[in-house]
Amino acid sequence: MEVYGATKKMASGERNEDAFTIIRDPHFIVAVADGSGRAFGVATRALAYLAKMVRNTCANDLKLFHTWECYAASLDAYLEGGKETTLVAATVIGEGVYGIQVGDSRCYKVNSADFYLNSVGVDTKKRLGSGVHIAAPIHTRLQSEDWLIFATDGAWTTFDRLSLQKAQREAQHFSDIPTLLLQQAARHGGAADDMTIVVVRR
Q: Fewest CB atoms within 10 Å of the CB: 27, 88, 103, 180?
């Protein structure tokens, strides 16, 4: 699995309230989080807590949305009463992609024919730490020509097929894609928010 990420704080920000993590052992998992407002590192804390929870989970359980819902419920309770964060996280097992979205961070699947969100219909204001979070499942397939793109709202606001094609033309290597997409987002208004993108392919 090939995976690269990049993150950039807002132009006027003191610190970056986005965070991402890439876990390779014992399971391949990508997670992105976006703390709300002056969140004082809540996204980083949430991802560290998630990493502890998945450590002893078997692969078959990671295929179940119930497992991801339990993670979200634990995170919601852990953070409740403090700052809130979004979360989009998924594992790849065989060709299957299984995960969760809470809040307005997103996961896209893209290839030469398709460009679509892997989950829709989430109440984006009911984030982790709110005590009333709402989660949506991520379930798709990742085949040889497919990419997964995880993004926080500062990055996906201007993200579309044309911006992805432009980044593909300019990239010398797959690892360049996240930074090129963030640069495009910054030029089109994204610099007013923290931005994070992680890209995955086989």
A: 27
Q: Residue 54: CB partners within 8 Å, gap ≥ 6?
A: 23, 27, 29, 62, 71, 91
Q: Give rounded-to-5 percent helix, strand, coil for the chain.
A: 30, 30, 40
**pLDDT at residue 178, as a whole number:** 97
DSSP at 128: B
Q: What is the pLDDT of residue 12?
A: 67
Closest CA to 38 of 94, 82, 1, 91: 82
Domains, the chain: 2-201 (3.60.40.10)
Which residue is associated with the tokens 């078997």?
Answer: 58
- CA-based nearest residue to 175, from 198, 152, 150: 198
Contacts of 148 (CB under 8 A, 6+ apart): 30, 90, 92, 97, 107, 108, 109, 118, 142, 199, 200, 201
Q: What are phi and psi of 174, to 5 degrees?
A: -55, -30
Q: Please state the separation of Cα 6 from the chain's center in Å.
A: 11
Q: What is the chain's mean pLDDT, rounded? A: 91
